[in-house]
């Protein structure tokens, strides 16, 4: 890509872009920035957390022919806030902007955000909730409710009036950032909220409207799953990697499966089914729960989707049925030994047995 003479000047504006699995969006974002920031000396810092799709190598490839592109790659860590902080720290530009790497943020308002900073603003928030802004790009109704509730809660505790404190799109003077840095927590994904909470009363904060675009390629990472993964990562850190996280996740999912199994068993009993019938229902309910939870959590990095997911489910059910036969056999034996008053204990024994079997099967066959 040919680049203008401003590319060889020290950057005035650094655009920090946290990204995870955005390989398709990175090249598009670079050309969008190139067009929107004509005449400005800018650089972009992609902060990638070792995405399996090769986002970092894609950006590094582009950087080979464009000195305005930089890459920070972090290994063994995930987190939007900390990625943003480290990206800003990796640059030396006096002005910094932070935006998502999925093209949902409108790069065309960057010059206006920079102008505001130069005119004296310390923090400029790109807002979906002021006149001229729009939030229709949010994936679904559920996200709207979540977002609006979050905003209201945040506004309640914040020392500043910001219409869109959850925005992932903002610009900040580097000196302002540096003064707030010691107070930042760096955890989670609400970096702007973190900054706004830390900024003293009287900080000059301005807002610029923008239209939040729908995501074109890739998928959103900010859901419950991220929270769960974050929890596992913390656990991994606390135990210093001595506990294999995947097995831990599998065991926890298995535990939920056992609970599902036992609950279904009890409901079936109340509904008047006999032990074998109840055991059958409980086992399959547990199997389905385990498959979907493992697909989202335990094997999130190998997550099966669409047709491959249904094939995976079929394979999982078939192979686990073999385990379930053993499960039922063991449960019956246990029931025989322990007596008929011990339904839950008997079926739990069988279910634990099938968790072990399922782990062997799933990690070698289903999520290879
Ligand atoms: N380095 C890194 N590490 N980047 C991440 C991580 C991570 O753990 N998680 C997400 N990202 C990147 C994504 O690749 C994307 O570029 C950006 O952070 C935002 O993530 P999305 O997954 O696209 O978030 P969203 O569109 O659901 O949420 C957006 O809107 C929210 C408000 O509704 C973001 O702008 C949020 O910051 C914002 O609060
Ligand atoms: Mn997004």
From TrEMBL:
Cross-referenced Pfam families: Glycos_transf_2, GtrA_DPMS_TM
Transmembrane stretches, start-end: 247-267, 309-335, 347-367
Gene3D superfamilies hit by this protein: Spore Coat Polysaccharide Biosynthesis Protein SpsA, Chain A
GO cellular component: membrane
Main location: membrane
UniProt xrefs under SUPFAM superfamilies: Nucleotide-diphospho-sugar transferases
Gene Ontology terms, MF aspect: dolichyl-phosphate beta-D-mannosyltransferase activity
Domain Glycosyltransferase 2-like: 15-179
Assigned keywords, A-Z: Glycosyltransferase, Membrane, Transferase, Transmembrane, Transmembrane helix
Compartments, as annotated in UniProt: Membrane
Stretches assigned to the GtrA/DPMS transmembrane domain: 250-367
Membrane topology term: Multi-pass membrane protein
GO biological-process terms attached to the record: glycolipid biosynthetic process; polysaccharide biosynthetic process
Family, per entry: Belongs to the glycosyltransferase 2 family.
UniProt-recorded name of the protein: Glycosyltransferase family 2 protein
